[in-house]
From TrEMBL:
<dbReference type="Pfam" id="PF00576">
    <property type="entry name" value="Transthyretin"/>
</dbReference>
<dbReference type="GO" id="GO:0033971">
    <property type="term" value="F:hydroxyisourate hydrolase activity"/>
</dbReference>
<dbReference type="InterPro" id="IPR014306">
    <property type="entry name" value="Hydroxyisourate_hydrolase"/>
</dbReference>
<comment type="subunit">
    <text>Homotetramer.</text>
</comment>
<keyword id="KW-0659">Purine metabolism</keyword>
<keyword id="KW-0378">Hydrolase</keyword>
<feature type="domain" description="Transthyretin/hydroxyisourate hydrolase">
    <location>
        <begin position="9"/>
        <end position="134"/>
    </location>
</feature>
<comment type="similarity">
    <text>Belongs to the transthyretin family. 5-hydroxyisourate hydrolase subfamily.</text>
</comment>
<dbReference type="InterPro" id="IPR036817">
    <property type="entry name" value="Transthyretin/HIU_hydrolase_sf"/>
</dbReference>
<protein>
    <recommendedName>
        <fullName>5-hydroxyisourate hydrolase</fullName>
        <ecNumber>3.5.2.17</ecNumber>
    </recommendedName>
</protein>
<comment type="function">
    <text>Catalyzes the hydrolysis of 5-hydroxyisourate (HIU) to 2-oxo-4-hydroxy-4-carboxy-5-ureidoimidazoline (OHCU).</text>
</comment>
<dbReference type="InterPro" id="IPR023416">
    <property type="entry name" value="Transthyretin/HIU_hydrolase_d"/>
</dbReference>
<dbReference type="GO" id="GO:0006144">
    <property type="term" value="P:purine nucleobase metabolic process"/>
</dbReference>
<dbReference type="InterPro" id="IPR023418">
    <property type="entry name" value="Thyroxine_BS"/>
</dbReference>
Length: 135
């Protein structure tokens, strides 16, 4: 079992058309309202879903970013985030033309929730998706 600490935000994709995890999907996590001390523009982190369809680690999208997600997550106040899944690339690899070229899920982490973990599963098909706050 891995002793690596989970980031405060993770996600999981299940492909409902094949009943299996959505592996190798590029995902971007964006902090939409960073504090003025960290940046004036949204902060982005990137990852690709693993063979189990999960993102369990994030890398800063910019090589010049010195902040990790854990540090950003501790900033004061309510914070708005989005997860953007590149579904066109994923389905395109199988020759499927999807109606939704990307799926964006926006959510808010309230100040009083900062000690909690946020897991965002997505049930995905080429013509629809469902999401919820998981555990």
């Amino acid at each position: 079992m891995s002793t690596e600490k989970k980031p405060p935000i993770t996600c999981h994709v299940l492909d409902t058309t094949i009943g299996r995890p959505g592996a190798s999907i590029p995902v971007v996590l964006t902090l939409l309202n960073p504090s003025s001390s960290s940046s004036n523009s949204p902060l982005k982190f990137t990852a690709t879903t693993n063979s189990d369809g999960r993102v369990i680690a994030w890398a800063p999208a910019s090589p010049f970013s010195s902040q990790g997600l854990e540090e950003v997550f501790r900033e004061q106040g309510d914070k708005a985030y989005s997860l953007t899944f590149n579904t066109e690339e994923y389905f395109g690899q199988r020759g499927v033309k999807t109606f939704f070229p990307e799926v964006e899920v926006k959510f808010v982490v309230r100040e009083e929730q900062k000690g909690e973990h946020f897991h965002v599963p997505v049930l995905l098909g080429p013509f629809g998706y469902t999401t919820y706050r998981g555990s």
